[in-house]
């Protein structure tokens, strides 16, 4: 089975108003913590975007899981690459990016370029990997985001697979685009979650005032903490938090050996 390999360089849901949680957790079977080795949360209102991610890597020590290409940021959970099927998320992101494309157009281009090699990868895994059932329900989740015209836009997609009569089919299970250039976001806060998120979802559903309870950066950090408690074998510290401002600039909160400076290309 293709396995994510990350390294840190240690030297150099839904109403128009109020809070909204994207529907990437609609099926309870998709949040099995033991099978997801990443947890990422993206919180946004009309003025800022906050992103928090864990750093645990399997195999490997720790990793930065927040990336940037051009003026666009992205993060993913799931299978990263397979040399046999020529599936490589980082390369597909580069292939899909265009400086004139919106976040929504980026998502569409990525889907077009990624689905065939991902389908081939899942078929190959089904034939040769004993660990197929560990990834079959969540082979890939990915999100792209940035400010466009001074307003946040976040797009995400979630894939799963079904097996019928020994035939593997890739399914685009959930897709979500939050575009504040179209919808008035001045009275809403949005949450997008990738990877292990059962604890996150439970918290947001039981704390209806989460969107107004304080700093979104602290809330993003807390949510990833809950994911670490939920899945300590696959999700772990340090938690990296990034804020993006309407002018496109970004800042790491408490930068560390994993995430600092400009978000880099993935090292897998």
Short summary:
With 268 residues, the protein is of the alpha+beta class. It has five helices and 13 strands. The protein has one domain (18-253): 4-Layer Sandwich (Glutamine Phosphoribosylpyrophosphate, subunit 1, domain 1).
Notable traits:
disordered N terminus, five-stranded antiparallel beta sheet, globular, six-stranded mixed beta sheet, about 270 residues, about 25% helix, alpha+beta, Glutamine Phosphoribosylpyrophosphate, subunit 1, domain 1, about 30% strand
- The number of domains is 1
Mean pLDDT: 85
**Into which percent range does the helicity of residues fall?**
10-25%
CATH class: Alpha Beta
CATH topology: Glutamine Phosphoribosylpyrophosphate, subunit 1, domain 1
What percent strand? 25-35%
Structural category is alpha+beta
Distance between the termini: 15 Å
CATH architecture: 4-Layer Sandwich
Radius of gyration: 17 Å
Q: Count the helices. How many?
A: 5
Task: Note down, in words, how this protein is organized.
There is one protein chain. Helix 1 (89-96) packs antiparallel against helix 2 (103-128) and helix 4 (198-206) crosses helix 5. The chain has one domain (18-253): Glutamine Phosphoribosylpyrophosphate, subunit 1, domain 1 (4-Layer Sandwich). It is globular and about 50 Å long. It is 23% helix and 31% strand. It has five helices and 13 strands. Strands 1-11-2-3-12-13 form a six-stranded mixed β-sheet, covered by helices on one side. It has 268 residues and is an alpha+beta fold.
Topology, pairings included?
Elements: E1 18-21, E2 39-44, E3 49-53, E4 67-69, E5 72-78, E6 81-82, E7 87-88, H1 89-96, H2 103-128, H3 132-135, E8 140-148, E9 151-164, E10 167-179, E11 188-195, H4 198-206, H5 216-230, E12 240-244, E13 250-253
Parallel strand pairs: 1-11
Antiparallel strand pairs: 2-3, 2-11, 3-12, 4-5, 5-8, 6-7, 8-9, 9-10, 12-13
């Amino acid at each position: 089975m293709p396995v994510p390999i990350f390294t840190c360089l240690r030297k150099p849901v839904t109403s128009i108003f109020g809070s909204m949680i994207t529907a990437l957790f609609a099926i309870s079977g998709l949040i099995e913590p033991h099978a997801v080795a990443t947890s990422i949360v993206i919180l946004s209102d009309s003025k800022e975007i906050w992103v928090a991610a864990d750093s645990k890597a399997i195999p490997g020590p720790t990793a930065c899981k927040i990336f940037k290409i051009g003026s666009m940021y992205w993060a993913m959970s799931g299978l990263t690459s397979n040399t046999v099927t020529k599936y490589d998320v980082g390369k597909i992101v580069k292939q899909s990016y265009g400086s004139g494309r919106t976040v929504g157009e980026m998502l569409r281009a990525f889907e077009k370029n990624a689905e065939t090699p991902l389908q081939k990868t899942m078929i190959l895994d089904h034939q040769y990997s004993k660990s197929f059932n560990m990834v079959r329900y969540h082979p890939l989740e990915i999100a792209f985001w940035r400010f466009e015209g001074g307003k946040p836009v976040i797009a995400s997609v979630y894939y799963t697979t079904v097996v019928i009569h020994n035939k593997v089919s890739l399914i685009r299970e959930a897709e979500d685009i939050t575009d504040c250039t179209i919808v008035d976001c001045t009275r809403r806060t949005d949450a997008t979650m990738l990877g292990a998120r059962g604890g996150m979802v439970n918290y947001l559903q039981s704390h209806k005032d989460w969107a107004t309870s304080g700093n979104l950066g602290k809330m993003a950090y807390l949510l990833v903490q809950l994911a670490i408690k939920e899945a300590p074998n696959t999700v772990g510290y340090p938690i990296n938090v990034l804020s993006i401002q309407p002018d496109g600039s970004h800042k790491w909160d408490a930068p560390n050996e994993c995430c600092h400076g400009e978000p880099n290309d993935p090292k897998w």
